[in-house]
Amino acid sequence: MDRIVDIASEDVFLHVHRGFLLVERQGEEAGRIALDDIGGVIAHAPGLRWSNTVFTRLAERGVPVVICGTNHAPSVLLWPLEGHHLQGARMRAQLAAPRPLQKQLWRQIVSAKIMMQGAVIERHGKPAGAFEMLARKVRSGDPDNVEAQAARRYWKLLFGEAFTRDRAAGGVNGLLNYGYTVLRAIVSRAICASGLHPTLGVFHANRANAFALADDLMEPYRPLVDDFVHELASEGIEAVTPEAKRRLATLGTLDLVHEAQTTPLGLHAQRLAHSLATSFELGKPRLSLPFTLATASAESRDFEDA
User: Fold this and answer.
1) DSSP state of 20
2) Domains along the chain with CATH numbers
3) In this predicted model, what pLDDT tens digit does every residue of 185-206 receive, in sequence order?
């Protein structure tokens, strides 16, 4: 199982030795992990030092490296130049995707996200019928911004009336930032493995965002991070502690239901990215989307555009 490696300690040196990523402090080995077991590296420590070989060996395995700011949100994401053997053809199809197809894909993504939000709310014993209704209201391209309507309802139900989502804030917001960073690394690796280009998003298109597609595809999984953070907060953990990071780093192993099968999130993200590549090649939306931690109804899985 791919592991997320978090480097938060100051004054450490990372280098590669005989297939292992080694962490050294003051010339002494502090830890090691096999390169083949790594699914992503997240770095927080300002005083961290790297061997250049770390980046080349991780790139050979399609492993993204995420460098974070003080708010635990990603500032830099390093991406390998070489990926899937069909990378060239798939990127051309991605670049040529017509706007109507992109809007249909975004509709499916937003609908799945809202359904997952409802599943999380229901998991905590609160009424979630409105989320299924909102999911069905999403039109191609979400011109009515149903995503924002659902978010306003969702955050208050999950974290209380006083909560406001703020990337620059600490506490629960800092935990959410860190969890989304883990998720972004998982999804970014899946995109690389599928032969798609991370900059060419379906919806997100900020010219300064080199990983717009990762931000698109992680949307349906975000409520899973929120659920993790809610659990941590209920235990009194409201800061990005080592324990919080350890638990959030296991996000990729979380089981999801898809077509009556249970699949770990990390593997599901790979299927989603592959299904997006297929959608670009066919010119039709064929996304393999997550919906819930529990059993999803056949009706909730039907988000095809007429």
Assistant:
1) E
2) 3-63 (3.100.10.20), 87-301 (1.20.120.920)
3) 889 888 887 888 888 899 987 6
